[in-house]
Description:
The protein is an alpha/beta fold. 34% of the residues lie in helices and 14% in strands.
Amino acid sequence: MDGVVNARRPQWDQPVSHGHAFVDGVTYRLQWSPVLTKYIKAVHKRRAAEVRWATTWVDHVHQVERLLRLPAFRTAFNGLGAAPSVAATDRKLAAALHVVEIERRPLIWTDDDAIPVLGTQRRRLEEAGVPILLLAPDPYLGLGPDDLERIDAFLAATATLGGEVPGPVSAPGGGASSPH
């Protein structure tokens, strides 16, 4: 969510929307592009992919859905507790690996800080034998028009494979600062 949808300087030509979420007595100001949230909603509505939350906001995701006017998406995990950023990276990776290794479905994973760049976990994602699209946006900019073009191209390519609807688009998941 933070650094993917909630960004300080969203890279869209249209005005951004603002709102507040509250966690344990702390107020967080969220900022997002309505164009981006409309896109996420459209992907869900046309069943182009299953959207799942994979975010440190997961235990408070209802607030995010209400603010961004998004439907209730499934969560990839829950129960992050009082220090969500501590466990989130491992839980996000485990959720992504589950999609490609267990569910055997294509994966679009958007996250500004949890996607492994190198190493064993990255190889596991890449060698699972299903199509993957890993997008790590600049956390200050979040997802932008170029990212959505890449997602559209991936969705079109996986649709021609005749397989299942791609697994989670975790664009709403993603992560950075405060609870995401």
